[in-house]
Amino acid sequence: MALGTDEIGRFAGFLKEHEAALVESWSHRVADGLRGRLSQTELNRQIEELFRALSEALDGGAGTVEDPNAAELRAVLSELSRSRARQGFTSTETAVSVFALKDALLAAMDARQADAGTLRDFIAFSALIDELGLFTFASYAAAREELIADQAEELLELATPVVKLWEGVVAVPLVGTLDSARAQVVMERLLDALVTTGSPYAIIDITGVPAVDTQVAQHLLKTVVAARLMGADCIISGIRPQIAQTIVALGIEFGDIATKASLADALRHVLRLSGVDTRRNGRKDG
Amino acid sequence: MERVPVLKIGDMLLVSIQVDMEDQTALNLQEDLADKIVATGCRGVIIDISALDIVDSFVGRMLATIAGISKVLDAETVVVGMRPAVAITLVELGLSLPGIRTALNVELGMALLARARFEAEGGGDAGEDDETVAAAS
Amino acid sequence: MNAEPQRLTVASDQDVVRVRQLVRTVAVAVKLSLVDQTKLVTAASELARNTLVYGGGGTVEVDRVDNGRRAGIRIAFVDSGPGIADVNLALTDGYTTGGGLGLGLSGARRLVDEFDIDTEPGRGTSITVTKWCR
Ligand SMILES: Nc1ncnc2c1ncn2[C@@H]1O[C@H](COP(=O)(O)OP(=O)(O)OP(=O)(O)O)[C@@H](O)[C@H]1O
Ligand SMILES: [Mg+2]
């Protein structure tokens, strides 16, 4: 469906001849679609840039969007899609920014009374513009997906703070539903924290976790075993009665993993182990 | 064939594995270490694997064998510096390295060895400076 | 967009090291997470060693794949050794005929997303594993 050499030449010529009118009516049509959510200056700048990139691609002989000479044009379109996606415009609003060129072309052609040849050209030019529009659509979708993935990751990070409680003790207080993906993130972050802080003790506090399923319980278990392989001990604190029931009912072996009722109990336990310690805390002398 | 260097530091042997070992290199290390323990009379061995980006069943078996041999020769082994991704992978692989002591880093490994010795000697004075071992052979 | 598959011969200890290095390079290129890279390289190390030790040597082919939604890596380990008579038994944790830990096959299966084994006594063994980007 690539444009022939003649068509490319005529398209380029037409753009040059009607540059001012085209840019203006194109911008207008796009502005209508976006209903003032983008400043007119910003919009004009984008449309001029697109117009220039398209003209240059055609001058370079590009008859399709994949043409090597259309690289700059593709870059401009991608950038446009990305910024639209980030600013919260819909995919339709974004694609219309490109498709509006068709209306602008038609208007410019009407003005000089179209004959059959002109109409045939219009159809050919339209095919190229459709390609550009679809390319924009695809870039928009990719940009959105990237954005969503980034946000999901940020949320995960926010939801799993690993804190240094004491010299040699890190803790991760978990709040909210633990699904498999989050449990995995927690595991990796906790183990990383052990290394960076050189802490031989870790407390996983699940007081704020309403329930766990088998998979999540397995993840917790694996975290404890992995920490042990690295030379650190994990204590799980704040296991709610329902979770204890789940663990037993599922037949999950928690084996010799230390569990404590509360974060405070867990910390006390750790400090005693590491010998910091309780003698000072006023136990009766023997 | 590359060989992994074994360093004597005080009364401990330190092995820092820096390369992606061929299986034969791992086997050589087992032998070298056994010889060195006997030759120096060292009672503690620290194996630093912080540079290893994977530990598979072969290397896992080597670590277990080294710990076993050391024990027979009256020395304790501590494996230190295992990376988180390696630990996660070992758990999935099903390799739990039973009977191997581990610590996060060399410093904590040394502390662990010192404590183990202290306990083994009934909490008595574990001499810090025993020059005598060098004279053994 | 897919690069050519890369193939290595496995005939010695050094080749097993090379397999690990190649798999690591490709795993980084397809942007597997660090943990997934580690899992895949470990699985490849186990399987390549089996190819060498039990299969009497063979080849490893590393390929980038894309199922339209996700990118990934596919690795094939092929030998024309004795084959495996009882696959289920060989895939049992702890089963070994070579004085190993018997964790190579079963463990490798747990470390990847897809695991296919095609083997027949006297004909050889071919194992294909795939790991997808998350
Ligand atoms: N490519 C192969 N050809 C023939 N037999 C094989 C092959 N791969 C594995 N086997 C058989 O399956 C058994 C189990 O393999 P697996 O890798 O799980 O354990 P291993 O190699 O014996 O020990 P490890 O890998 O834990 O050190 C092997 O002992 C061997 O009998
Ligand atoms: Mg094996």
TrEMBL record, chain A:
It comes from the Bacteria. Residues 159-270 form the STAS domain. Keywords: Phosphoprotein. The keyword Phosphoprotein applies. PROSITE patterns: STAS (PS50801). InterPro entries: Bact_StressResp_Reg, RsbRD_N_dom, STAS_dom, STAS_dom_sf. The keyword Phosphoprotein applies. This is Polyvinylalcohol dehydrogenase. It comes from Spirilliplanes yamanashiensis. The gene is rsbR.
From TrEMBL, chain B:
InterPro entries: Bact_StressResp_Reg, STAS_dom, STAS_dom_sf. Signal peptide: none annotated. It comes from the Bacteria. Residues 2-113 form the STAS domain. This is Anti-sigma factor antagonist. The gene is rsbS.
From TrEMBL, chain C:
It comes from the Bacteria. Coiled coil: none annotated. This is Anti-sigma regulatory factor. SMART domains: HATPase_c. It holds the Pfam family HATPase_c. InterPro entries: HATPase_C_sf, HATPase_dom. Residues 35-134 form the Histidine kinase/HSP90-like ATPase domain. It comes from Spirilliplanes yamanashiensis.
